[in-house]
Amino acid sequence: MLAARGLSRQFGGLAANKDVSIDLHRGVLHAVLGPNGAGKSTLINLLSGDLPPSSGQILYRGTDISGWRPDRRSRAGIGRSYQRTNIFPAFTVFENCRLAAQSRVPRALRIFSRAQGFADLTDAAERALEEAGLAARRDVVASTLSHGEQRQLEIAMVLATAPSVLLLDEPLAGMGSDESQRMVELLQKLSADHAILLVEHDMDAVFAVADVITVMVTGQVLESGPPEQIRASLAVQEAYLGAGDDDE
User: Fold this and answer.
1) CB 3.0 to 4.6 Å from 191: which of 29, 102, 103, 209, for a disulfide?
2) H helical segments located in the chain
3) Residue 146: which domain range?
């Protein structure tokens, strides 16, 4: 679905990503691990179009989209979430999703028309809320949701745009154990029908949910493979996993 080939990004003399290649497939949850400064968020920003690459290619369904703007990538089916929750706090849960669905309407909406009159937008929002597990919270003002529910809402808003690829930047950040478990279950459900790239620091969650794990260090791919391969890798243990064990 989405692939990077030799992707690099320079900030002056700093290589935030260097010659990164990665493949995302429908039905596969692909997690990216690495210490702070490894280049994980830079990779998501490159794939989503928030940053232009210094070199390399980004392919979506075989088409080179390296020069596409973020909005064009989004309309094509590449959805993303951010490290910081990105919602409309004064609107209800349902209104947030309906606004997201509205971005996919290939026409200008009449300013004095009632939003409730657009059945296709309502249906898309309802489906997204059901898929994200928030249907029972549809009429709640978003600012009153718990942190975990707000992260669920952000994913629901992405789902309302009908993406085929999900780029998720630390969706479990700041969650307690119960909220984390709900998010893991949601990710497992979504991975059946989407290609997912997950950047996450919660090691237990990553190894519980990921089909493939790529470990990055200093902007480069150290190793990539199934979770059992990553667990057994001496290079990964020395560069990342082992460091965490020593701290404990």
Assistant:
1) 29
2) 40-48, 70-76, 93-102, 119-132, 147-159, 177-190, 203-209, 227-232, 234-236, 242-247
3) 87-162
